Amino acid sequence: MKQLHKQASVNYRRDEEMPGNQYSPKTLKHPRSLPRSINYLFREQRLLFVLVGVLIGSTFFILQPTLSRLGPSEARTAVTSSLSGSSSVVQSSNRGSSGIFQRRSVSGRVPADLGRRRLRIVVTGGAGFVGSHLVDKLIARGDEVIVIDNFFTGRKDNLVHLFGNPRFELIRHDVVEPILLEVDQIYHLACPASPVHYKYNPVKTIKTNVMGTLNMLGLAKRVGARFLLTSTSEVYGDPLEHPQKETYWGNVNPIGERSCYDEGKRTAETLTMDYHRGAGVEVRIARIFNTYGPRMCLDDGRVVSNFVAQAIRKQPMTVYGDGKQTRSPFNLGNPGEFTMLELAEVVKTVIDPSASIEFRPNTADDPHKRKPDIGRAKELLNWEPKISLKDGLPLMVSDFRNRILNEDEGKGL
Ligand SMILES: O=c1ccn([C@@H]2O[C@H](COP(=O)(O)OP(=O)(O)O[C@H]3OC[C@@H](O)[C@H](O)[C@H]3O)[C@@H](O)[C@H]2O)c(=O)[nH]1
């Protein structure tokens, strides 16, 4: 650097020495000409102008740190409001036992006409059942959303109502490959979530969970984005603690048929926390329990969608094993626990009282019980489920009825 500087100043002097340059101050070479410069400075109040210039310059440098402090505090307000906005899908944050809650100031564009800064958010798996509902929420609150999806289980139909919206973009991309995007937040949902789908190609499932999560965390680190991982209640495996608190470490078979998903998500959680501790990335982890609702794939294979589709199609509801295993299949994690047989009864009441049940052998490593302890979500996020199974099922049933009808008419969605 010094060398460069020297070179530059040498060149400058050479230019000045060029013949014919009337400003060529050969005088610079001769120290005895210094008094002439001082005389020049004192003539026509030039010294006064120099002092005024110095004063303006110092004022700027004194004020500058104060101005730059304003930025992050505005960003903090934006982050807090966006946090409360997304609390319905966030179960646990990293404000955990360690007490660590590192917040990086969010950089980016601040449109002058908005109270809350518009965020640019990428949602991986945004064409899926949960992802597309999240995208709707983010668009509705005014953010810019980029969805990336490989359409393994996601469907364009879930997002078609957003096509043409200038704040929405859709990219066909598999998270197993890196991608570079300038974003403020990353919601990482990409991964098949139904046991039927994730067991279909277990190697691909674990790659998605490990390499996909690494790629997205790498992006978060690179662009300074906040990162949310949607994990699963399956990290608890076949739990020995009931109900399950976030502090429970689980009981998971590492070499079973479900391991690609269970252990894949556990590894994804580990990577998330390592990027937080090691690289200062601001992270959230949500452990989502068995979920149902409109836009689920008709062939999703999870219990609620199976029972609903079967009852609508007048087929027997397939209960695996003895049907005594429990889940709490609402929203993020509803502590209202019931057996599969009890669920079948509710489906009967809502859809068709004459619907029958067919018992089938249960799948390997199927967890016997599952019920979230949501004390932490209640306390930290003021979140709790609002929709009971009896109220929630009809919302899904009308969506399924329409699509099954279209499918029967050869217009399968
Ligand atoms: O047709 C069916 C389908 C499933 N079942 C039973 O219903 C229970 C629930 O099974 P599901 O296939 O719906 O899914 P699971 O609850 O095992 O896991 C799911 O929930 C947690 C999510 O995070 C995961 O993405 C998802 O894997 C199991 O005991 C299963 O054996 C039936 O009895 N009949």
What do you see in this structure?
With 413 residues, this protein is an alpha/beta fold. The chain has two domains: 195 residues, NAD(P)-binding Rossmann-like Domain (Rossmann fold, 3-Layer(aba) Sandwich), CATH 3.40.50.720; 122 residues, Alpha-Beta Complex (UDP-galactose 4-epimerase, domain 1), CATH 3.90.25.10. Helix content is 42%, strand content 11%. The strands form three sheets. A seven-stranded mixed beta sheet has the order 1-7-6-5-2-3-4, with helices on both faces. Helix 6 runs parallel beside helix 7 and helix 8 packs parallel to helix 9. The protein is elongated, with a radius of gyration of 31 Å. It starts with a helix and ends in a 5-residue tail after the last helix. The relative contact order is 0.10. The protein binds uridine-5'-diphosphate-xylopyranose.
Please give a quick description of this structure.
It contains 11 helices and 11 strands. It has 413 residues and is α/β, with parallel strands linked by helices.
